[in-house]
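User: For my dataset I need records formatted as: sequence, then structure tokens, nothing else. Please produce one.
Assistant:
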Amino acid sequence: MHNIKLTIAYDGTDFHGWQIQPARPTVQGAIVDVLQRITQEEVFFHGAGRTDAGVHALGQVGHFKTHAELSPAEFQRALNALLPPAIRIVSAEETGPDFHARWQALAKTYRYRIYRDRVVPPSEWRYVLHYPFPLDLEMMRQASALYVGTHDFASFAASTGSGEDDQERTTVREIFEAQLTEAENGEELHFTVRGKSFLRYMVRKMVGTLLDVGRGKLTPADIQHLYEIRDRSKSGPTVPPQGLWMVSVEYPEPWRITPKPER
């Protein structure tokens, strides 16, 4: 049995998110369909995280186990030949048997792109939030720094859809880094956040709250208050999904084994 780790990039525009759903196109579903064609086996493909509909990835990670005697490079070539162009396998490698893309993840990094110029180029509109209006960037930077640390992010999370589940789940998360920067082209703002794990819509709510700070509706001091009151109606809006990118996933060690020679 071989354990294969894949690093995946995708344009999430035309997918109903990562996770398999009946009768709906999803990233995980597309990869599983192709893997089962290649291996002629039932394949269980686990991802590091579940991105929502319309969210993109540069470095999503997943793994699957198989009896097929293909090398990782052969899997990569076959997958890229058969998958839709919106999904690309960036790399493939064989790992130790205990590697799990979700449970061994130490940190995930997300980036949200805000386009500031008056007109969005046609090549970019599906990948950014267009906001050409005035913002107080210094206040937004101060607020973004207050996300770092271990906090109760209940005010920044969507409901699970179940009142019972909402009461039972923990909403405490640790954020390692959070910063707002201006892109080199001067036309975009990037909010980049790195943490162990994230609640549903959490990053998009964090960005919406930063925009409210930039608009003067909230202040940096309100961030601490939002942690305390645990009321998602008081934080900023959930910004649209198209500006969000899953950048990378980190693991405690390479988890590689000696690769088989190319055929």
